[in-house]
## 1
Amino acid sequence: MGNLNAEKDLTFEQKVVLDAIYRIDNLEAKRKMSKIKFEKLLFLLGKMHRSELEEINNTFEPYAMGPYSEYIEDDILGPMKDLGLIRDYKEITPQGREVAEQILQHDEALKKIDESLKILINILLPLKDNDILYLVYNLYPDYAERSQVRDMAKSENFETFRIDLKKINEKPGNIFEITSDKGNKLKVKIENGIIEINEKEEDQ
């Protein structure tokens, strides 16, 4: 590691990604962290912290398997491998672990993002890659335009309901029906600025 000064020699984005790999490497089930999950973890983290992670957020582009960032590969992971901090996207070196722990102790901005990281990792790790692609494509459909798997990114665990925003401005107390991409139906009632969603009763 030489005379690496974590505060000066690493960019904030590199610190965040190092922290992500540190968190992943601590997990017993880290083998479940596929490259797709890792990419989408950082993509969603960038969306959650747009101002702090502007460079990460702005470098994701539509790709064959969903949003992808060459910047993360070339300017973050590559240099950290060269510095001996990581072996790959889910394995940190002893030197990298020492640096990650040092940074977490002193960087208040990173501590805030670390909390979001832990939440996202816990959510994404148990999911299949298809589930994650399904969620990302439905939350951010613009990133599906170059996808080679968009039509195959189906999920057994999730379904999408969409609400027409025009209906929100209609008569208070209005009740309307929404249908998911799997054909299931819900009743939506909007009154006093509150959206109430209930399962649709079966026709008698």
## 2
Amino acid sequence: GSDILMEPIQPSVSVSPHGRFERLQEDPNYISHFTRSPALKGQRRVHCFLYFLAAAGLFVLGLLIGWFTHTPNVKPPVPPSDSSDLLEELLRRIAADKIDALQSEEARAKYLYRQWVGLGLTDVHLSNHTVLLSLPGSTPNTITDRSNHQCFLPNGIHCDQRGPNDIPKQQFSYAAYSAVGTLQGEVVDVQYGSVDDLRRAKDSLNLTKQIALVKLGQAPLLYKLSLLSELGFGGVLLYIDPCDGPPGRHAWNQAFRVTLNPGGNPATGFPQEAGGSLTSLLVQPISAFLAKTLLSSPSTGQGESCIPLGMPPNTERKEITLTVGNQLSSKKIYNVVGYLKGRRNPDRYVLVGSRHDSEEGGGASAIMNQLIAALTEQTKQGWVPDRTTVFCSWGGSALGNIGSYEWGKDNSVVLQSSAVAYVSLNSPVRGTETLRATASPTLLQLTSDIQKLLSCIRGGNCPGPNVSSLQLPGDVSFFANQLAIPTVEFAFEQTKMEETTSFLSEAQFPVDSPKTLDPLFKFHETIAKVGPSKLLLLVPGTLYIWKNKTPIQYNSLTIFTQTFEQLTLLDHAAFFQSETMRPANDPKERDPSHIRMLNDVLRDLEKSFIIPQTPSGVYRNLLYSLPGKTPQFSILRFSQEAALHCKVLCHSTMNQSLSLILRAIRSAERLVCFGLDLFENYQNDAK
């Protein structure tokens, strides 16, 4: 059947069989309709008036004929606007008040579908996937102190003190895809759950079926849970130390949600006997106030005077009962995907992704809508991108980026061969203190260029972002981690990304309304203005830039002593973009075929750094690192941690990790050499 979206719009008024200009044709009875009487005097006046009109018409007609006979028939084409002019026009159209107006309507996929079609996208698809979701139980999860039989809710209040309005808040605090049931055990303080922390606990205690009290941060949650499971723990209570949280956040009585789903539809990921959980552990997030109570910790204060939470020496450990009652449900999640087709390279795709969870607050959807509106308005004026832009709004993001994983897997073959970049709008305003920029190595230079193009919206006085290649949470993970598509993301946060505060974003708090967090919508406006800047540098035939100052250099130098392979790769990559390759790099001499080949080679460099397996929660893409004082490959960091408490096996693991890294560097070097050969042969053929 015909696509209803592609049918032409019918006129709202009828058109005469004589044609659309029928009413401009002469009506012989027109004069008689408006003559008052057949008086001769009146008729003479009318005839004089008609003669005057005829003479005036002939005069105007003569002027027009003279004008056109002395003017060229072919109208000179309007020169296309350059990127800077187009960017200025887009930024002018994106305003905070427009984003504000969209906030109450941005929650669901079907609305977004109608919005995108109305904004001018002619190729929009609404798809759904039936997936297994882990949802809160009918009653909140509880923690009971067996010594005095006091029952606590996750935020720390007593179970018998909750009001009717507290139940939704308490139900929000759970670990999706945790094991369910009831467990009795002693509380064991393992701090951040590092190998050092666990080794100390193992040396002094029997950890079997005990309940670990763990701080979020410093390492991925799934990595910590894998270690705790190996040591025999039965349950885990998660909390955020107030000393690690942003200075302005009062998190003492706030519980939160986490997901244990690494990505995609969990129904395909666990065995039948697992009962719907992705771990054997009973996992429950709690507030810092409840953690302080269970630890008998004297910690007070926040900021520089803050004393981290911890169980004092010689303190009797509390024995508790942990009850987790999550429920599983098969439900549909929806993705909305729209295409703005490119002209010169329509088979090369730049993806722009956001989410439309009800918890997200609508800010990302508002920014996406404004971006689509601005770009489609430009296409009406004749501008067409060289590459195809794919706008994506994902469902199921909060419980493990389900929508993006499922769509990505369905289209993985095309994406691996044709995707140029992924621009992330995942939770773009999480705070109001720091503008953080994260990009893969091939887009680091472009990300810095964007900052130079845009002045800060707060008077131009704020510092530029600290561009890094840290592994990102959210929907971007599938494209960066599984497909090695170059990625870039800008986001406002409440604190800088440091080693102690890293991975705190794994905790999901009830989202403040964008109006509450950003009442003037200036931070949303800034991110919205960054969006077209990124796209205008990606959708034309612009180049990736793989400069020497990349994580591969820093990471490699901490592992190898200027190895031959590393230096060869960097030298060849530099030569690949040198004056010798000038026809592909000089904007005045760009050849489309050179640009396409060069970009394909540089883009595929990242694919060389995908390794088959990593510790839980760690990217398979080696080029994304974990926060730390010394930049290094993440798999080496965990191999070094493991080596602290074992010798033979862990030494073998370290050697294996080094071998994988060296193999990746050699693979990337061969790819660059292939690109050089391709260019040499192309130039010879051209002669």
## 3
Amino acid sequence: MSAEREKRRPVMKLSELESQLTQLQDELKKAKEQLHSSENSRKRALQEAEEARAQAASASAQARDSEAQLAELSSVEETRIFELRRLSQERDRSWQSELEAMQKQHAADSAALVAAMGEVHRLRVQLARADRKPQEAAEAQLATVDELRAKLKESEEAEAQARSLHEECKQQLEASRATIDSLLTDGSKLMDSFSLVVTELEESRAKLKAQEEEMAETSSAAKAAGESSGCSDSEAAELRSALEDVEARFQEEKILSTVETQCAYELMDQLKMESDLRHGKLAAALGSAKSEVIFLKASLFDKESELRRAQDAAKKLQDETRTSRDITADELKEQLRGALLENGQLKIELQKYESEEKVPVKSEAEAAAETAKKGETEAELRRLRVQAEQWRKAAETAMALLAVGKGGNGKVMDRGDSLDGGKYAGLYDELDDDAAARKNGNVLRRISGMWKK
């Protein structure tokens, strides 16, 4: 369902944009129709001016006819004409001053509207930057947290490898100790066999000594029994040779046992030294790995706290931007009301001006001057009317765009609050909101350029 909703959301955005484009096209069509009607009114005004010129020509002809009558008028009539002329000039000056005041007010209102639109654009740019900065900071902090987690995982793997190596060294040490114990057992067995050989050798020496004593006792009888003595000498020689062989074998076995025992002790000392050295190195590596794991855990906790603070700051900035946008929208509404009120007053003044009675033209020069002044005043009033209408349309368009931008940015703020929930959850919505913001900015720039023209 969520995938279908995400697929349906860009389509809804596209339909909304198409509806807005249709509305803008309708407004453009209405503006063209109003422009056409203004052109028709201008043509009618030109026709009226031509008729006024014709009337002025006829009036000038009548004035030529009445010049003779004017010469016969009394001084009282001339004074009255002079007074009427003075009143007409004063009224023209008052109308001119009012027209200049309205033009100045209109220029001031135009400048205020342009400044307000510039302020809205600047706030939009600041809001876009403010929306991008927390996201970039959050992405950087998330990358740092991922890196720290990877380092923590590597440290844990190194710690596990150090522990396995430590266990392997312990097993090697136990195996070397078992080998030393077996060598010591073999040495004790050799010593037992040597003691047996020594015992046999002592017994052989005792037998040899007994035989020598017997030989000494029987030496006196050796002369009488030569054959028997020769036999005893041969037995004694055999016994001596056997004794010498046993002693030589005993010395060799003793030397060999001593050498093997010494080698076993040296091997045991060497294995013990190597085991102690390796155990020290592994203990140091294990301690450094534990300290690095503790440091990485502390860094991870600090980064997570910084990420939470950055998210809180981004939320606060979005709330402040929302408040300032509401205030700007209220100010634009007030300015639009003032502009509409002033436009109504301008229309009332125009109607009042058109409904006033015309002063009779007394001479050809005065008629031409007054007609030209009247034409200029009417043209200026028509221009002000068209400009005020354009201003009203531009202000209404700006208010509509502000309302649309406010709704879209609200969606962005709501997604910014759930930053931890998913990193790419609202990607399509953000792209649509950015496109809408760019479109609104382009429309505002076009309205500002049209207004400057």
## 4
Amino acid sequence: MTTATKPPHLEDPRPNGRPGAATPLLPAAILCLVACGPGGEDATADRSGEAGAAGFPAGSTAGFTADEIASPAAPGSGQPFLAPAGGGVWMSWTEPSPGGHRVAVSRYDGHSWSSPATVAEGDGFFVNWADFPTVRSYGELLVVHWLQRGGQGTYDYGIRIAWSADRGATWSAPWTPHEDGTPTEHGFVSLFERDGEVWAAWLDGRAMTVPGGPMSVRARSLPVAVSAAGGT
């Protein structure tokens, strides 16, 4: 698998092996592992002598098939994230676009990927191997987050969140959960549901404007309810 050098606006310059290193490209295909029953014609893996390996007793044989599925992402894409979706799976990723880069999503229904939908596009994304866009599915409601650079230094970036109540056909305007306005780090977002609401939790560096200031963990509910899109 090859890698590509990303332009500065899409790459955190911290050294490799630490938060901020560049991410390899999205594989050209996704392998779906499907368990196969004993005695079939599929290739098998002999686990004889491996007591308890992968949950199989010593002397047993287990196998699987691997189906290659073409990726919906464009060449040069990266940072894939998968989220379960009622018998299928949603994937988000970033890829080059005429406007710089875009955040896109697609759903795999067990047979094929849907046409990719663009969530956001521009030249100011902040992405690295540990902190990248994610997608979550709550019934018909999709929620995607990404990070956007500010204008006051390498680690001035904030969170943007958008949602779709129609499985990605249309999207809300980007929304920012933090309102401190400081040129500091805001990232490592986790999206979750609580009592019919979607919440975002993140690491917040607003206090780091003062040397030695602490990083904090903050959370806030989004201005959209899960029930607005038909529930979970």
